[in-house]
Amino acid sequence: MDPAKLAKLQAASAVNRIGGKGTVRRKVVRKPKASTAQDDKKLQGALKKLNVQPVTGVEEVNMFREDGNVLHFTAPKVHAAVTANTFAVYGQGHVKELTELVPGILNQLGPDSLASLRKLAESYQAIQQSQQRPAGAADDDDDDVPDLVENFEAEPETQKAAALD
């Protein structure tokens, strides 16, 4: 066989070789999956220390936040210790705006809750208005440009005349 041709084949095969005799074995690094089962066990242990009991039949939970948004849980797991006035709600929660949830939660509210919802809606509107005011005020400031009082072109001529005298 031609030595030049053999060297060419060896160089080409060394570049294109993926596996086979003489290649380095690389270990496969497997990343551990985040196990929610382990987190649930820790949570169950903490809840057991609080002496809470599971509450069944809860389809959704809404927690109203001060910024006007709602923390909404669908199909949550709820545990309660009624004597200690302690409730634990866990599951997949989403932050939603109050306007998205109002039609669905009106039939769930009692008379006391309706009054608090009205108060919350008023505060939400106040927050929205206060956020919109500074933007409008900044636009008004940009539009106020003072009028020119002096003629700037005439000034250099008077200075030239004074310099010539």
TrEMBL record:
CDD domains with a match to the protein in the record: NAC_BTF3
Q: Where in the cell is it found?
A: Cytoplasm; Nucleus
Region Disordered, residue ranges: 125-165
**Where's the NAC-A/B domain?**
37-102
The source's superkingdom equals Eukaryota
Q: Sorted alphabetically, which SMART domains does this protein's record hold? A: NAC (SM01407)
Q: Mind telling me which InterPro entries this protein's record contains?
A: BTF3 (IPR039370), NAC_A/B_dom_sf (IPR038187), Nas_poly-pep-assoc_cplx_dom (IPR002715)
Compositionally biased region (Acidic residues): 138-156
Set out the biological process GO terms recorded for this chain's protein.
protein transport
- Please give the GO cellular component terms listed in this UniProt entry: cytoplasm; nucleus
Q: What is its main location?
A: cytoplasm
Any idea which UniProt keywords this protein has?
Cytoplasm, Nucleus, Protein transport, Repressor, Transcription, Transcription regulation, Transport
Q: Which PANTHER family match?
A: TRANSCRIPTION FACTOR BTF3 FAMILY MEMBER
Record text on subunit structure and interactions: Part of the nascent polypeptide-associated complex (NAC).
The text of the family note is: Belongs to the NAC-beta family.
The entry's protein name is: Nascent polypeptide-associated complex subunit beta
